[in-house]
Structure prediction request, 116 residues.
Amino acid sequence: MDGGIVNYDVVISNYGEAYNVDTSTFFTPYHGLYHFDLFQHNAAGVDTRLGIFINTETTPVCQADADLDGGEMSSCSALVELQAGDTVKVKGTVPGQIQDVSRTNGFTGFLYLYLE
Prediction:
């Protein structure tokens, strides 16, 4: 999963339809402050790191790390100023395997404050 985009194929709510499940991309419809959360559960014996990436940036705005012990939960949150039309994706930052037996992985994003 090194550099691979994580596909969240179950969408519980998508008000404003900012998240595209086909491309696994959150599109920002407005200039503003956006809040993002990332939760992950790694498989036993696998080091897993996931990050939230803006546009084509190569450094994540936050990163969730789970080490080789396995069965660990990790998370990260970010509050970032984005322009209308920016894109946000979750990507793996090291080779690894995500365990999602009971839907414990997730990604959320929403407009926190509209800016003109």
User: Anything to note?
Assistant: The chain has one domain: 15-114. The mean pLDDT is 86.
